[in-house]
Amino acid sequence: MSEVIRLLPDNIANQIAAGEVIQRPASVVKELIENAVDAGANNIELHIKDAGKTSIQIIDDGKGMSEMDARMSFERHATSKITSAADLFTLTTKGFRGEALASIAAIAHVEMDTIEQGEQIGTKIQIAGSKITSQEPSSRGKGTSISVKNLFFNVPARRNFLKSDNVETKHIIEEFNRIALTHPEVGFIFSHNGNVIHKLDGAGLRKRIVDLFGRNFNDKLVPIEEETDIVKVKGFIGKPEFSRKTRGEQYFFVNNRYFKDSYFNHAVVAGYDNLMPPKHYPSYFIYLEVPSNTLDVNVHPTKTEVKFEDDRSIYSIIRSAVKLALGKYNIAPILDFEHEAQFDLSIEQQNSPIRQPEIRVDSSFNPFKSSSSGSSSGFSGSGSSGSFGSSGGSNSFKSLKPNKEEWEDFYKITEEAQEELKTEEEEEISFEEPLKSSSNKIQLHRNLLLIQVKSGAMLVHINRANERVLYDELMEHFMLSPIAAQQLMFPYEYNLLSTQKLEWENNSSTLKRLGFDWDWKNNTLVLSSVPSMLEVEYVTQCLDGIIEKITHEELDKGELVHELILSLSAAATNHRSKALSEEEMNYLIDRLFQSEQHQYSPSGKRILNTISIEELNNYLS
Ligand code: ADP
Ligand code: MG
After folding, report:
1. Among residues 313, 614, 589, which one has the least CA distance to residue 466?
2. Which of 59-68, 213-222, 289-298 has the highest mean pLDDT?
3. How far is it, in rounded angstroms, from Cα 384 to Cα 536?
């Protein structure tokens, strides 16, 4: 009988190992930047072409390598970072498995140019499919440059698995963000196809967050800090009012290493208690420090999962640190009626009577059927706040027809979303409609309407009601034809980061459909038109919302449209209401009750609540 078991040649073993460590261009970026950080670099450059599929280059000013080490570094299990298994528990470096360079060299064309600190002559090595193809002295001044071309050139199956350039770029940006956030003290340059996406100077954490995610983040962050023997907690968490329906920036780091952990994520969310609307997610940048012998980072090849010795205690500490941070931030007394908490907490919903909702909708209305009735849009460009579109009724779009197949998916999404909302809604308490008398409404503190209803009094938050009505109209309208734009007398300028510019351009057809039109002055967006219902002074607020949605969330087209319209309706309505005439109050309430979702604003906040006659009388007893 002949033996059938053979040892695999190194290059094949490396290819197999590469499958674990290197899944996509972003994995190469991660491993190489980590190596640069481990080499003590103060400045790191990342240049990619075609989402990293064609080339990835990383240049650092770290300590470099000798000729011997440069060759050795491509061997499997070649590492300078540990010498025994026990070292795994006293790690101070990102890498330690000695697999990355060997794996990358097995599946790409790699060129390394490096010089050891203090030496005169460097080494340039070319390697492809695990074989060194050339080696020569080099005249490099400092550090190391590694370029990785034609990723997966010899593993076509893997190459075929790669996603579109857009998706792969997003993965790279995510890896980049994680490392840039771990090391705010290191300067970074990041370019894609020759365009600089980030140029980050070494800075403190707050500045790094703002440089990466945009200046509007500055107002959203609350510092978090806690120190115990088991763990030190530092960093920033997002104010509850900036929480969102989709996962945003959620980052955990431990001992200078990014990690994912759904258990600790739960601790953070628990710390927000009921300060967040249901199904919303907070942003956070939380840095833990634990004694290194209580942490195992070697549980996963890509090292994004780690194991803590005392995760239960850490859970409680994180939760209370979050609570404490939010408590401190909330200490300032809030007397302003516009603040959400005032409205939400003032009335106990569980005491209100349960009633069947009565919703008046035109059930025969079908936006796809043309009819002879008027086609005037409710968005004629008047730009008036609060009482927008008073010329348009619920069927003012009847004669418009859907004109683009590409929006078909959108219907599906909205239907699904509506279903979901409906099921949520069923658990909620329903409200009777206000009485139809003309003089039963009083505007309180501009922002609230007090309305007499049969069973007592109803309080309506005007901005949220406006937001709901506008949102519903826009969603309905958007499916059929582009939203009316208003030409600006003076172009409106708004600075973007390069990443944001990329995403803006990626979504240009949707943004044009919303009523925006623009030119570029470098990274500055120069708007020549904006949606007609948006007043110029609220354009920044609207753009802040839009930028946040298009840059940091992986949304499909339908979800994105929903989010963008949400940003637009919030910006067009979320400001101090003007004094409403009786007619305007009636119109608003009429429109509100035509909405199936008249209890909640599109961003999930309560629009109205009733107080029973009994409760009202109790106030005086
Ligand atoms: P690991 O990082 O797990 O040790 P790698 O395969 O990523 O394994 O790297 C192997 C070795 O090559 C490292 O331990 C380090 O000594 C050296 N090395 C890699 N990249 C650099 C760099 N940019 N500068 C200096 N040395 C490097
Ligand atoms: Mg490494």
Report:
1. 589
2. 59-68
3. 11
Surface-to-core class of residue 430, CB atoms within 10 Å of its CB (0-12 exposed, 13-18 middle, 19+ buried): middle
Kindly list the domain boundaries of the chain, sorted by start residue.
10-200, 220-328, 448-592
Q: What is the DSSP string of 264-293?
A: HHHHHHHHTTTSS-TT-B--EEEEEE--GG
CB of 57 closer than 8 Å to CB of 147: yes
Least confident of 28-32, 218-222, 363-367, 585-589: 363-367
Closest Cα to atom 17 of ligand 1: 73
Find out if CATH 3.40.50.300 is the number for domain 10-200.
Answer: no
Report which listed range, 34-38, 298-302, 417-421, 538-542, is most confident.
Answer: 34-38
Do strands 517-521 and 524-531 pair parallel, antiparallel, or not at all (unpaired)? antiparallel
Domain 220-328: assigned CATH number? 3.30.230.10
Mutate to test the pocket of ligand 1, among 28, 43, 60, 73 (most ligand atoms within 8 A of CB): 73
Predicted model pTM: 0.60
Are 207 and 261 a contacting pair, CB within 8 Å?
no
CA 546 to chain centre: 11
Ligand 1, residue 97: give the atom nearest the CA.
Answer: 3
**Confidence label for 301 from pLDDT (cuts 50, 70 and 90):** low
In this structure, the residues whose C-beta lies within 6 A of any atom of ligand 1 are: 31, 35-36, 39, 60, 62-65, 73, 78-81, 95-102, 144
| Architecture per CATH, 448-592 | 2-Layer Sandwich (3.30)
Q: Separation of 453 CA from ligand 1 center, angstroms?
A: 73
Atom 8 of ligand 1, nearest CA residue: 98
The Å distance, Cα 99 to ligand 2 centre, comes to 7
The answer to whether the beta carbons of residues 495 and 523 sit under 8 Å apart is yes
Among candidate residues 510, 500, 526, the one with its CA nearest the CA of residue 565: 510
- The confidence band for 367, taking pLDDT boundaries of 50, 70 and 90, is very low
Pick the residue whose CA is nearest to atom 20 on ligand 1: 35
Low-confidence winner among 204-213, 245-254, 398-407 (lowest mean pLDDT): 398-407
For ligand 1, the distance from its centroid to the CA atom of residue 464, given in whole angstroms, is: 55
Pocket test of ligand 1: the residue of 33, 38, 257 to mutate, having most ligand atoms within 8 Å of its CB, is 38
Asked if the model's pLDDT at residue 404 lies above 60, the reply is no
Task: State in Å: Cα 98 to ligand 2 middle.
Answer: 6
Task: Report the separation in Å between the CA atom of 17 and the middle of ligand 1, taken as the mean of its atom positions.
Answer: 17
SS3 480: helix
